[in-house]
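I would love for you to help me understand the pair of lines that follows before we discuss the fold together.
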Amino acid sequence: MYQNLLYETKDGIAYITINRPKSLNALSNEVLDELHAAFTAVDNDPEVKSVILTGEGKAFVAGADIAEMVKLSTLEGRAMMIKGQNVMNQIEMLKKPVIAAVNGFALGGGCELAMACDIRIASENAKFGQPEVNLGIIPGFGGTQRLPKLVGKGMGKYMIMTAEMIDAHEAYRIGLVEKVVPAEELMGTAEKTARIIMSKAPIAIQAAKLSINNGISLDVKTGVAFEGEALVAPFSSEDRIEGMTAFLEKRPAKFKNK
């Protein structure tokens, strides 16, 4: 089904691996189409509770496919940017948690792809950067918007305007990634994180993600009001009763709304 991805599900986790190691997993139009299809499959599969996204070989994604982009007209380039933005938005707004297991280079579109995920776990040999100004363009898959929100406006401008590539530990220091682990521990750590999240009430995880994603661009008063509305669904669920009862009875909760 997929020419550029590996897709499998196991124990409630969907594993999506970009599999173009010879091109360092560069994001072509075809790869973007396949990512859209894979995340649509995740969204429609009730057995899948979380996603781990990674890359094959020494790169997570080293950027967009420049060999393809250099041939595009302005209108074709704009269309590719819109397609990329739509895929990143799809990942960010997916109801299920998405963990980026960043195994190597995450540059340009690769950094943007990682930022669209909920949580970023990096191996010690991962590298991050937005080098688009070196190519005469700017980040086009959401980088100018998501990077400053994660690392602050000043650092976001610095990384985009200098095109400086940073290592995993610097990415952790500035808040671009949540954890840095040895390469051999990367997938195990991502899986452990996914299982921790999956052990919580799914309706609460979904509401929390929705509230954070939508509220981050709002003023605090409006965001808090949105949070209050997002709380209604989990508060009216059986999982809320079970979670609170389990807490009072000092036992693990057994959530039903899977």
Notes: The chain has a mean pLDDT of 96. The chain is about 50% helix and 15% strand. The beta strands are 5-10, 13-18, 50-55, 59-61, 98-102, 105-107, 119-123, 127-129, 166-167, 179-181. Residues 5-198 form a domain with the 2-enoyl-CoA Hydratase; Chain A, domain 1 fold (CATH 3.90.226.10).
